[in-house]
Amino acid sequence: METKKPFNRREFLKTTGGALCLITTASPVPAVIADAAESGPPPVKRNPAQLKRLLDDMDAKGYQFWSVPRKDGEFLHLLVKATRAKNVLELGTSHGFSAIWMGLGLEETGGRLTTIEIDKERYDLARSHVSEAELSQRVTCIKGDAHVEVAKLEGPFDFVFMDADKEGQMDYFKKLFPKKLVPGGILSVHNAIRQANSMRDYLEMIRKHPDFDTVILSVTMDDGFCLSYRHRLS
Ligand SMILES: C[S@@+](CC[C@H](N)C(=O)[O-])C[C@H]1O[C@@H](n2cnc3c(N)ncnc32)[C@H](O)[C@@H]1O
């Protein structure tokens, strides 16, 4: 008689993780659908090999610049498209890796990204990478302290990626909610697993907030995101 093997979660994750890896290896550069943009600057016809070289090079320096792992960049790219985001804000640009992934996603939605970096050298580098990716018309880099700059921005945003100082999440939230985050908007916080202690106040608050649905998830099976969806009806 056939015996059923017990479900092994670890093995399952290993296998599905492997499958995802195969898919992403097969298509390392996102395809841009030329006529899908709804407004904003038109999508750029770029050289896929050149873009791949840039992303590979930035990925290789990811550790030095504290940028998101490539899989998390791909996840942000997918999220921006799936949520049809139009007005995206990033806190903590570093050398622009996540900004480029989101910027490429915004080519399909016709949206724009504003990204803030406090460090002058990283800001300069990010601008040059964004230009190399031919995204300068879609991505605006601001040099400054995000705690100050967010207060100056009008918004409202429909997708916010919070990846600057981890202890600052609560202050950023207070500056964004309710006026600068639209109902139906997404707050996405990186390092919500490995650096949970540095943002404990934020994580506890957002999980209980009656206006948001919140999940913590990992694409890399290592660190991950705290994703919060603001209800359309409150
Ligand atoms: C984890 S890195 C961002 C990585 C980037 N999102 C990526 O994936 O490519 C955090 C960045 O936030 C910047 N940062 C820290 N505090 C900041 C602040 N108050 N305002 C703006 N940027 C800040 C740091 O200089 C650093 O470059």
Quick description:
By secondary structure, this protein is an alpha/beta fold. It is built from nine helices and seven strands; from the N terminus they run ααααβαβαβαβαβαββ. β2, α6 and β3 form a beta-alpha-beta unit.
Which structural category do the helix and sheet elements fall into?
alpha/beta
Low-confidence runs of at least 5 consecutive residues: 1-37
- SSE order, as H and E? HHHHEHEHEHEHEHEE
Count of DSSP E strands? 7
Number of distinct helices: 9
Helix percent reads 40-55%
For the sheet with most strands, the description reads: 7 strands, mixed
Strand content: 15-25%
- Give the overall pLDDT as a whole number: 88
- The shape is globular
Span of the ends, CA to CA: 55 Å
What is the CA-atom radius of gyration, in angstroms?
18 Å
Order of strands in the sheet with most strands: 3-2-1-4-5-7-6
Bound ligands:
S-adenosylmethionine
Provide key terms for this protein.
234 residues; alpha/beta; 7-stranded mixed β-sheet; 19% strand; disordered N terminus; binds S-adenosylmethionine
Overview of this protein structure:
There is one protein chain. The chain is α/β, with parallel strands linked by helices and 234 residues long. The chain contains 9 helices and 7 strands. Strands 3-2-1-4-5-7-6 form a 7-stranded mixed sheet, sandwiched between helices. α6 (120-132) links the parallel β2 (112-117) and β3. α4 (70-82) runs parallel beside α5 (97-109) and α7 (146-152) packs parallel to α8. It starts with 8 loop residues before the first helix and ends with a strand. The relative contact order is 0.12. The structure holds S-adenosylmethionine.
